[in-house]
Amino acid sequence: MKSLLLITRWIVGLLFIFSGLVKANDPLGLSYKMQEFFEAWGWIGLHDYTLAMSVLMNAFEIVAGVAVIVGWRMKLFSWLLLSLILFFTFLTGYAALAKNENGELIFRSCGCFGDCIPLSPDQSFLKDIILLVLILFIFRNRNQIQPMFSRPIINAILVFDAAVVALLLQWFTLKYLPVVDCLPFKKGSNLIIQRQMPPDAVPDKFDYKFVYEKNGEAKEFPLTALPDSTWTFKERKQVLLEKGKNNEPKIKDFNLTTIEGADITDSVLNQKGTYYLLIIRTPDGLSPKDEWMKQASALAASQKVFIITSQYEAVMDLLKDDPVLGKIPVLVCDVVALKTAARAVPTLYKMNGPFVEGKWSGAGFGRIQ
């Protein structure tokens, strides 16, 4: 029993540490995933708190994983682990079952292992069911667990160090971008290819029902048997018959348009040679006196730079007094696409044709090569 309990603790602990580290590599990714859930539940007012919640949850997963391995305060952490896995199981179960009016899943993934290891909602739910069984075993035998080290201070120091590492890692990734970039905009990516539908894509199959009304009675009809002209058309319903596979491009809605509405994405990405994309998703918290702006202005004085944002007027106002950046036309892009492209504000890309050669946050502009 002791050997089985020890093995179970190591499995659960390592899984929690791994899960926490993967998400701590990109805490904004989990923050955006939380916002998806809150939008589905109508809790939009919590959006401003999702980043703090993400950082704390990632840190707790890592700390809990270390605590269960070293056996530190297991009466407390067994309850915390059980509560956490019940919460995760609810979320993944909801993600596996929640569908829109067309019968399509609302969530393509739950974000359990971030973007580095995307799991389907069904896979995530199964993972959490297995973890729930293992944690219940630990919970039931929590009084038999002995600390790894006889000196309590050593176990406490290990758990404390885990918390410090978790928080420092997230501070670093929020300031300088993820250590391991798993997003489709990562270094080496061909953005033109990533915007295209995969060659092996299988499209969704739909059927359509048409709702007509007559004498106050509404009735659905298939396309092959529409009613006569005595019926009044009300609406068309799309019904999912069969879900396709791999039928979405890796990069969606990354369309660069001028303020007049002209889409120039292809002309920008297909040009030859080196150029830069300066993405300022939002100007909130930015100042014309920031060091990154001086560095970006110096770069734009000698290199071709395109400025991209989702908030045109506000960014124009931010840059208007800069003698170089203020004269560069600003392109507009969908805010959701920019959340993926630019985890930091601002973010700078070094491009060679459609290929990403380098990527820096504003705090790292001084290291541009």
Q: Would you report the number of β strands?
A: 8
Helix content percent band: 40-55%
Q: Tell me the number of structural domains.
A: 3
Summarize model confidence as the mean pLDDT.
90
- Overall 3D shape: flat
User: Which structural class do the helices and strands define?
Assistant: alpha/beta
List the uncertain runs: none
Strand order across the largest sheet? 6-5-4-7-8
Radius of gyration: 25 Å
Give the number of helices: 11
How would you describe what is shown here?
The chain has helices spanning 2-24, 27-41, 50-70, 74-97, 121-140, 152-176, 191-194, 265-269, 291-300, 312-319, 335-341, and strands spanning 205-214, 217-222, 232-242, 274-279, 305-309, 330-332, 347-352, 355-361. The model has no long low-confidence stretch (mean pLDDT 90). Strands 6-5-4-7-8 form a 5-stranded mixed beta sheet. The protein is flat, with a radius of gyration of 25 Å. The chain has 11 helices and 8 strands. The protein folds into 3 domains: 2-176, no CATH class; 205-242, no CATH class; 251-367, 3-Layer(aba) Sandwich (Glutaredoxin).
